[in-house]
Amino acid sequence: MTTPSKPERVHHPLFARAYARLAPSAESAGVAEHRDELLAGLRGRVVEIGAGPGLNFAHYPATVSEVVAVEPEPHFRRRAAAARSEVPVHLVAGTAAALPLADQSVDAAVFSLVLCSVGSPAAALAEAVRVLVSGGELRYYEHVRSQDVRAGRRQDRFDRVWPYVAGGCHCSRETESAIAAAGFTVTHVRRFEFEPRGIALPVSPHVIGSAVWRSAQPRLPGRAERTVRPET
Ligand SMILES: C[S@@+](CC[C@H](N)C(=O)[O-])C[C@H]1O[C@@H](n2cnc3c(N)ncnc32)[C@H](O)[C@@H]1O
After folding, report:
1. Is the distance from the beta carbon of residue 108 to the nearest atom of ligand 1 less than 6 Å?
2. pLDDT for the residue 230
């Protein structure tokens, strides 16, 4: 008999407060434009995993019919509940490794500065695969491991302390490899160094990308979906 794994607990109230406080300057330094780029052209029902204080909400295009915003951290969730949006947003508690959504119930999944922080990127991406329809899209905006070997080693050293001060965030994750390993086909990616004040930081290497996931098996018509009522 296997023991079910303990649900992940995400509780970073100090980080959540600091993030929300620093957000306005980061947004005006370029992050807001990155969010537009991340979300452009999305349509249908979208799940945003680790929505934080809801800084993406105002950037969803009108072609999105609903955003299910999953956020485990209570302080972030309170902030997100007050965030402005032009499209319907349904905010729910939950973690990336156990999304409160039925199988094949969304057209797109969005990770925005989140795969650096989740307990297991592989588990989070597997959950995205579970809830996406075949042909569904993954959109991601993440800081990642540098492609420069020496810079990558510096990020490894930084990661000995960084997760403890930055809500579990890691600098040196190979997020693009994790996305490919989860079975996604990348359709577009832009890699760049984000250095708003001209200073290179361990979190400077960024990617904004989109990928598609296709089921190897055709979906059975009329298959009943597990209905999960999201809680707020
Ligand atoms: C740096 S913040 C980014 C917030 C937001 N996505 C944005 O673009 O501003 C990292 C987010 O990941 C969330 N997070 C951390 N671990 C998570 C997990 N296991 N499942 C889902 N979200 C998680 C945090 O609560 C937080 O909202």
Report:
1. no
2. 45
Q: Give the pLDDT confidence of 183-215 residue by residue, as tens digits.
A: 999 999 999 999 988 888 999 999 999 999 988
The whole-number average pLDDT for the span 1-20 is 77
Quick one: average pLDDT of 8-36? 93
From the CA of 71, how far away is ligand 1's center (Å)? Answer: 7
- 179 CA distance to ligand 1 centroid (A)? 17
Arch. (CATH architecture) of 13-213: 3-Layer(aba) Sandwich (3.40)
Residue 197: HSE in the Cβ half-sphere, 13 Å Cα cutoff:
4
Number of the ligand 1 atom closest to the C-alpha atom of 76:
27
**Is 105's C-beta closer than 6 angstroms to any atom of ligand 1?**
no
**Is residue 118 lining ligand 1, measured as CB closer than 6 Å?**
yes
pLDDT per residue as tens digits for the range 76-108: 999 999 999 999 999 999 999 999 999 999 999
**Displacement of CA 209 from its chain's centroid (Å):** 12
112 CB within 6 A, ligand 1: yes
For ligand 1, say whether the CB of 48 is within 6 Å of any of its atoms: no
50 within ligand 1 shell (Cβ under 6 A): yes
For the chain, domain boundaries: 13-213
